Amino acid sequence: MIDFKIIQKSEETNARTGILKLCHGDVKTPVFMPVGTCGTVKALSPDDLINCNTQIILGNTYHLYLRPGCDVINHFSGLHKFMNWNRPVLTDSGGFQLFSLAGLSKITSQGIEFKSHIDGSKHMLTPEKSIEIQICLGSDIIMCLDECVKYPADLHTAEKAVELTANWAERCKNVWKNQTSANNALFGIVQGSMYKNLRKKSVESLADIGFNGYAVGGVSVGEPKDIMLEIAEHTLLLLPESKPKYVMGVGTPEDLVELVAMGADMFDCVMPTRNARNGQLFTEYGTINIRNARFKDDTMPIEAECTCYTCQNFSRAYLRHLLIAKELLAYRLNTIHNVHFFNTLMEKMRHAINSNSFNKFKKDFYSTR
Questions:
Q1: Catalytic one among 140, 146, 255, 268?
Q2: Is 70 exceeded by the pLDDT of residue 351?
Q3: Residue 182 pLDDT > 70, yes or no?
Q4: Per the residue annotation, which of 48, 92, 140, 265 is the catalytic one?
């Protein structure tokens, strides 16, 4: 059974630390979840993730349903054994992926009709089907199917999405109650686009149904950064205080610091892994592009103080060479550093909250960037 315990609340902000107890282990919050869409965090092995202090990863219902499919994963009694990962997994419902593949999908009251991006085959993802797939995957945290709308969205479109999301959430909970042994958690997803009154309505609808945790969805979908932060803060303050609060699809290190101060507990984003493959590396002093010619004969590691495997063993010059030469090792070494950086940032924030020094941490964080 899931349990969430708040350990410490900041005296200066809405930041807090907690322990999220899940079937495959405890997770210290606030936490960042590297994205492993297809059952792998790109370029990294499970040992790499553990050595980067990764507590929990994210998988995706849409992609894993299409390939390899539940018929394969059932042979392994779930995703954990299939990918040899013995720590917690959260799975996204598939709704956001179908939102991003809008040309291949159609939303009805029953669910989302879509064509596979792999072979064009036709499928229907209903709330019930989404939960059944995630139960097959053995997810520690299951997400309700929701309707995410693009930015900007008119009021009528956003209002319809809030109503449909609430309807689907209730259907998700019904099938979850009937088909799970209660060894996993079910999270509801708040929608409402950039309309504060709709965000409030969405929160109230989901809270009435009752979930183990709540996610702020429908942000980081093209809106300006200041609006994203404003809507996220507004929503976070409305969510039940005793439950974990998850901001989906965000974001930069600066985003994480701001959102933790607002009370967010959980995050995911492809940024550290995707950017690593393009040569963008995160450091305490901002980002660097390792492709730049100035690193051609640089004997220093990415970051002198970093304890990740990459920084302990390789120079900037070598990393640049690998990327320019399109050597596969470049993707692994760059990704190790970025994932380690994000996990270390979260660890530093947890320490600052527990020692009631979050404002000092935040000031120091911005002073070096």
A1: 268
A2: yes
A3: no
A4: 92
Helix (H, G, I), strand (E, B) or coil at 50: helix
The answer on 234 and 194 residing in a single domain is: yes
Strand order from edge to edge, sheet including 3-9: 3-9, 16-22, 25-29
Phi, psi of 151 (to 5 degrees): -110, 135
- The pLDDT value recorded for residue 67 is 97
Residue 301 predicted with pLDDT over 90: yes
Does residue 92 carry a catalytic annotation? yes
User: Do 54 and 97 belong to one domain?
Assistant: yes
Phi then psi for residue 244, to 5 deg, are: -65, 140
Q: Quick one: CA dihedral 73, 95, 119, 35, positive or negative?
A: negative
**Which pLDDT score is estimated for 94?**
86
Taking residues 323-332, report their average pLDDT. Answer: 98
- Domain count for the chain, please give it: 2
What CATH number does residue 7 fall under?
3.20.20.105
- Cα–Cα nearest to 260, from 272, 271, 246: 246
The token pair that represents 328 in the structure block: 């596969």
Find all residues with CB under 8 Å of 69, minimum gap 6, and list them: none
Enclosing domain of residue 26: 3-269
Q: Are residues 259 and 281 in the same domain?
A: no
Active site residue 265: no
- Per-residue confidence band for 179, with pLDDT thresholds at 50, 70 and 90: confident
Residue 88 shares a structural domain with residue 145: yes
C-alpha 209, offset from chain centre: 23
Q: Please provide the DSSP assignment of 281-319 as one string.
A: EEETTEEEETTSGGGTT--S-S-TT--SHHHHH--HHHH
Tell me: the pLDDT tens digits for 185-228?
999 999 999 999 999 999 999 999 999 999 999 999 999 999 99
Query: Which of residues 233, 251, 269 is at a domain's end?
Result: 269
